[in-house]
């Protein structure tokens, strides 16, 4: 029994209150069951939702919290019923680690919309176990929520695809953005989500315009990320010239902002898809929707089948995140910078090489 207990011991960095300060935290993972995969975590991306959650910005945080849902690692143990993976495989774990497996959404491979969805952290499993995320040395996950990480993807810069990548890929598929090459996509906000949206949009053959409040990122958006053009919302003449020119807009901004300028950019029948999660509700202008037969929708990550499809697509097209690799001990300063949007464009923690020394 003592040996089993030792095997379940885990170590990570947790927030203990809404200050959001992360510090070393010892805890236990569950036993590796018949359907489980135990993963030694190599890298974990730092998502903006991690920051919101540790600060309790959305009002449903339960401490202590170990964040992290962009996990890449190595399978170190598999249960007897596991058929998809073997020890030594490189795998990924994203935003969700459980669902009911029987509802309409689950039966359609949309586990991300299951009413009994279990998130990777700040959640409880059906047996009451509190789930902790990827800012830790290992994780135990049901094989149905583990992803095969393609050979062509680097572990570090590929990790953010497990949240940011699928968050922009799924709405492109669902809202018809991939059905006809040459359609015009506007990407509002050039951060962790936005910069990957540019890359995936171009791989799908779309004309991509980045929409931003300032021109600070214009050269890198076009020269490095491959955007076709850059539109500054404070430039009234350029906004006027761009009126009614876009088929779709992906709104990745998580801060409070006006939707009205974005509606103006859409053509008749255009679609605005919200991906960012501001702390307070946004005002929805009805007149431009009615008078232009425009649509507004939303999207949350993707199901497991679609997430695997996205990883394979990104491997085929050499799409990865632009990252800043950090040590575990740097996480609090990284969170401070993330709150100021001071990152190009995703922090990724080198977990395996730094968590023990931290």
Which geometry do the CA atoms define? globular
Q: Taking Cα atoms only, what radius of gyration do you get, to the nearest Å?
A: 20 Å
**Low-pLDDT segments:** none
Structural category is alpha/beta
Biggest sheet, open or closed, and with what strands and sense? 7 strands, mixed
Measure the end-to-end span: 29 Å
Number of distinct helices = 13
β-strand amount: 25-35%
Organism: Brassica cretica
Cofactor: Zn(2+)
InterPro entries: ADH-like_C, ADH-like_N, ADH_Zn_CS, CAD-like, ER, GroES-like_sf, NAD(P)-bd_dom_sf
Family: Belongs to the zinc-containing alcohol dehydrogenase family.
Describe the secondary structure blueprint for this structure.
Blueprint: H1 2-8, E1 9-15, E2 22-28, E3 36-46, H2 48-54, E4 71-78, E5 90-93, E6 96-98, H3 104-107, E7 118-119, E8 123-124, E9 130-131, E10 138-142, E11 147-148, H4 155-158, H5 164-174, E12 184-188, H6 192-203, E13 207-212, H7 218-224, E14 229-232, H8 236-241, E15 246-251, H9 260-265, E16 266-274, H10 287-291, E17 295-298, H11 304-316, E18 323-326, H12 331-339, E19 346-350, H13 351-354
Parallel strand pairs: 12-13, 12-15, 13-14, 15-16, 16-17, 18-19
Antiparallel strand pairs: 1-2, 3-4, 3-10, 3-19, 4-5, 5-11, 6-7, 8-9
Protein name: Enoyl reductase (ER) domain-containing protein
Pfam family, one: ADH_zinc_N
Family: Belongs to the zinc-containing alcohol dehydrogenase family.
């Amino acid at each position: 029994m003592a040996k089993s207990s030792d095997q379940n011991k885990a170590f990570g960095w947790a927030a203990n209150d809404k200050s959001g300060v992360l510090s070393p935290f010892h805890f236990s993972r569950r036993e590796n069951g018949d359907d489980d995969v135990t993963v030694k975590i190599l890298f974990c991306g730092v998502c903006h939702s991690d920051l919101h959650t540790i600060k309790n910005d959305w009002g449903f945080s339960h401490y202590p919290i170990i964040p992290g849902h962009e996990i890449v690692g190595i399978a170190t143990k598999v249960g007897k019923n596991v058929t998809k993976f073997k020890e030594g495989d490189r795998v990924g774990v994203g935003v969700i680690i459980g669902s009911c497996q029987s509802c309409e959404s689950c039966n359609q491979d949309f586990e991300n919309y299951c009413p009994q969805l279990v998130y990777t952290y700040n959640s409880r499993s059906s047996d009451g176990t509190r789930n902790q995320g990827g800012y830790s040395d290992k994780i135990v996950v049901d094989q149905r929520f583990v992803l095969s990480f393609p050979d062509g993807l680097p572990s570090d810069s590929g990790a953010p695809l497990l949240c940011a990548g699928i968050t922009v890929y799924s709405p492109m598929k669902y809202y018809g953005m991939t059905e006809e090459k040459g359609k015009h996509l506007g990407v509002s906000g050039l951060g962790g989500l936005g910069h990957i949206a540019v890359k995936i949009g171009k791989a799908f053959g779309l004309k991509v315009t980045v929409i931003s409040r300032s021109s600070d990122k214009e050269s890198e958006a076009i020269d490095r990320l491959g955007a076709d053009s850059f539109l500054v919302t404070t430039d009234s003449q350029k906004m006027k010239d761009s009126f009614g020119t876009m088929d779709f807009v992906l709104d990745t901004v998580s801060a409070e902002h006006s939707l009205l300028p974005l509606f103006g950019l859409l053509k008749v029948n255009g679609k605005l898809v919200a991906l960012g999660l501001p702390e307070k509700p946004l005002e929805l202008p009805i007149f431009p929707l009615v008078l232009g037969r425009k649509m507004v929708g939303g999207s949350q990550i993707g199901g497991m089948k679609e997430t695997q499809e996205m990883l394979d697509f990104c491997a085929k097209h050499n799409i990865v995140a632009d990252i800043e690799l950090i040590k575990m001990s740097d996480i609090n300063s990284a969170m401070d910078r993330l709150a100021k949007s001071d990152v190009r464009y995703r922090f990724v923690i080198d977990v395996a090489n730094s968590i023990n020394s931290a």
